[in-house]
């Protein structure tokens, strides 16, 4: 033991007890920091897997219970009073468990009705939180569309509030709707991926109520709310920078917004226009994409994609304007919308049953009854 550690030990004596030497004073191996980082990452990953596994088991149990209730209703005509009694008995029998309120039991019954195939439930619905499933039950009436949103929720890890926003803004009608030349500028596989990565229109409910007339104002708003902007762009976009300087032949050019898409494996140049689309916008964007491909693109990167966001466009005119360009470009509108659905917390979560029941009692009961 070093003199310094011995001194710390002696100073830590109190009532005959020797205080242990803190971990920070121990000589650590040189690779300890890297080792600890790996251990921490593994614990986080395994903890998430445990949460997801528990969530899946819980939802399958809810489906099974819902099926049992349905069967009794069909065979013996069980009514609401029997469900109320079942709720009370379950709570008494399992006081340590939550989720057996009459309201929740009725949701389990509806869940089994709306998802009749247990195998599909296990593969899709059981992979998202119960409260998200409850939202889908009452906000999405079409079975195929409900399954689509559940699949998207699984892929992107949406919280309940984010899922509500995507449903309210009809995400399924906006994906793959840009005016673009992806089918001719990209190989088929990349073209399909690009179509699914972009949408039209893009809805920004965080821009405020003041109408924006200048690109700089729009850019400032988007960057100052970058998390919400990235949420609307969709999964895979990584922000690189704004007003990215490029020098060509002694002239300076500035790219409005530059992103890198992790799935498409390419840079994405976004140009913002506060007004109506015109064909000259495409020429400008195409030049910026050429510069990025020549100066930033790595040999392993795929060709840069351009996205032109305009306040207004004629879809047919935009398609004609893209004709003849061999760089992949999409043209979409942006809309300044007002909605209360976009959440402050954008992180996926697995809320408690108590939170679910509280919320349902306050917000869903009147709508259902």
Number of helical stretches of at least 4 residues: 16
Determine Rg (CA atoms, Å).
27 Å
Query: What's the helical proportion of residues?
Result: 40-55%
- Indicate the CATH architecture of the domain at 173-336: 3-Layer(aba) Sandwich
In the predicted model, the low-confidence regions spanning at least 5 consecutive residues are 12-25, 340-353, 363-369
Which CATH C-level class of the domain at 173-336 is it? Alpha Beta
Distance between the termini: 73 Å
Helix and strand sequence: HHHHHHHHHEHHEHHEEEHEHEH
Number of strands: 7
Q: Write down the overall mean pLDDT.
A: 82
Largest sheet: 7 strands, mixed
Write a short abstract of this structure.
With 369 residues, the protein is α/β, with parallel strands linked by helices.
What keywords describe this structure?
369 residues; alpha/beta; Trna Endonuclease, Chain: A, domain 1; seven-stranded mixed β-sheet; 16 helices; 53% helix; elongated; disordered C terminus
Describe this structure in words.
Among the domains are: 35-127, no CATH class; 173-336, Trna Endonuclease, Chain: A, domain 1. Helix content is 53%, strand content 13%. The chain has helices at residues 3-11, 32-76, 80-93, 102-114, 118-123, 130-139, 143-156, 160-168, 171-174, 182-185, 188-197, 215-224, 226-233, 280-295, 315-322, 353-368, and strands spanning 179-180, 202-204, 237-248, 251-261, 266-272, 305-310, 329-336. Strand 6 (305-310), helix 15 and strand 7 (329-336) form a beta-alpha-beta unit. Helix 2 packs across helix 4. The longest helix is centred in the first third of the chain and has 45 residues, at 32-76.
